[in-house]
Specification:
The complex is a heterodimer of chains A (about 120) and B (about 120). Chain A starts with a strand and ends with a strand. Chain A contains no helices and twelve strands. In chain B, a hairpin with a 6-residue loop joins strand 4 and strand 5. The chains are: A mainly beta (about 120), B mainly beta (about 120).
């Protein structure tokens, strides 16, 4: 069964500092991988996704993530954090096969940005 | 509509009451998912529809939970005889479908509080 681990429950960074949020997945083959962001009281919004090809993917709001098959990881990065990035971030994994699209989410990492 | 719409946004129920939560997906989206998000947790899969067919209901926590999508568009999640442990945000998401895991578009959720 597919699963996702986000080891950091809460991260605090200073505005302008770099950010890396960790994500490890478990899946029998190469999965589809996603990062979503959730602001308070809002639904989840897709930041970026990996399906195949280049292992470094670019997303919205200046975020990027790198798929590392050997480490079963898909860490999210941003070179310079803005106060508006404060939110909760969820890594997710889905099947790389046709027909059924169940997506499994991690427990999330809450990002706090301090001035 | 432009996005996924859920109603009601907030619902308070007394223990033992029945509740119905509605999801109006993006027009033309084949796939529809329900997730349950408890406080401080990631979304947990409940059930999945492809058009009107419920292809997976393995995440429904008990037989008190029932979901339908009779015409392949609007979906309703019904919870009978609500219990305190049912308190959570219920998220609906839709995607284009077409047999490949894709981006999920989420509604803002329905927050259920059972007293």
């Amino acid at each position: 069964a597919q699963s996702v681990t986000q080891p950091d429950i809460h991260i605090t960074v200073s505005e302008g500092a770099s950010l890396e949020l960790r994500c490890n997945y478990s899946y029998g083959a190469t999965p589809y991988l996603f990062w979503y962001v959730q602001s308070p009281g809002q639904g989840l919004q897709l930041l970026l996704k990996y399906f195949s090809g280049d292992t470094l993917v670019q997303g919205i709001k200046g975020f990027e993530a790198e798929f590392k098959r050997s480490q079963s990881s898909f860490n999210l990065r941003k070179p310079s954090v803005h106060w508006s990035d404060a939110a909760e971030y969820f890594c997710a994994v889905g099947p790389n096969s046709g027909g059924y699209q169940k997506v499994t989410f991690g427990t999330g990492t809450k990002l706090q940005v301090i001035p | 509509g432009a996005g996924v719409s859920q109603s009601p946004r907030y619902k308070v129920a007394k223990r033992g009451q029945d509740v119905a939560l509605r999801c109006d997906p993006i027009s033309g989206h084949v796939s529809l998912f329900w997730y349950q998000q408890a406080l401080g947790q990631g979304p947990e899969f409940l059930t999945y529809f492809q058009n009107e067919a419920q292809l997976d209901k393995s995440g429904l926590p008990s037989d008190r939970f029932f979901a339908e999508r009779p015409e392949g568009s609007v979906s309703t999640l019904k919870i009978q005889r609500t219990q305190q442990e049912d308190s959570a945000v219920y998220l609906c998401a839709s995607s284009l479908g077409g047999g490949r895991t894709g981006e999920l578009f989420f509604g803002e959720g329905s927050r259920l509080t059972v007293l």
